[in-house]
Fold VOC family protein.
Amino acid sequence: MDGNLLGNRVITQIGLLVNDIDKTSEAYARFFGVEKPQWFWTDAPEVARTEFRGASSDARAKLAFLDMGSLQLELIEPDANPSTWRESLDQNGEGFHHIAFVIDGMKEKIELLGRNGYPLLQKGEYTGGRYAYMDTFQDLKVLIELLENDR
Amino acid sequence: MDGNLLGNRVITQIGLLVNDIDKTSEAYARFFGVEKPQWFWTDAPEVARTEFRGASSDARAKLAFLDMGSLQLELIEPDANPSTWRESLDQNGEGFHHIAFVIDGMKEKIELLGRNGYPLLQKGEYTGGRYAYMDTFQDLKVLIELLENDR
């Protein structure tokens, strides 16, 4: 391994799993004295084309974002379909899920990380870009999400 | 509750618990193509004056910091004495522990959060400042650390 695998080390998001996005959004809004963010569903399966552990999944999640200065907190309430969100929430309960980095060249980055021992865990599309969760836990003690936004 | 309880919403650190700070520091250095950070022990008990769940503790930890753009990743390898670090590592294993915010007026902030339902979990001193972990987990799904640096 040489150089920076991501080409970037600025954390852009911290992702948290929650059971009730409305309740947790409200708690954050009160704690930090900001407006309660509006949650929204991730895209429908035919747009998101989610793959989790190599298999297609209809998984969706409710998302809400809070601006925390230099990065965003992302609240994630997953549905019951197979996903890293659902798996982690069932196994570990509510709380931290991942840190995210903006990258260029998703396909190449997934291959590069794979060659370096960090396999793809889940990927999907969203309006305006795509994401991939890479299984970096054993070495880095966190999951890393790659985000690529269309220009 | 009105206004921002912390007077700030810029996350300055993300704290991760690890079993082997040398090994995880090395993994981060390789992954991000940076120099491996040097770890150091937190201050001795007579300086740190650590209190965990209201009782004095001799707990110490090895710490290492990685600059991740707009914030720091803090790696924490606790010793065996009672602390939120040791408790969380034993109960939940390696990984995420807290997010930290720089605040002014530690005593007042601890009282304000306490009055709003967020009790003090652990506090201590370090050369140049002091910290407090507040038990915000039930509402915010993360622990919050307050940091106050002397001027």
Q: What stands out?
A: The helical segments of chain B are 21-32, 45-48, 84-92, 106-115, 137-140. The beta strands of chain B are 13-17, 40-41, 51-52, 55-56, 61-68, 71-78, 95-102, 120-126, 129-134, 143-149. Chain B has a mean pLDDT of 96. Residues 30 and 148 of chain B are 32 Å apart (CA to CA).
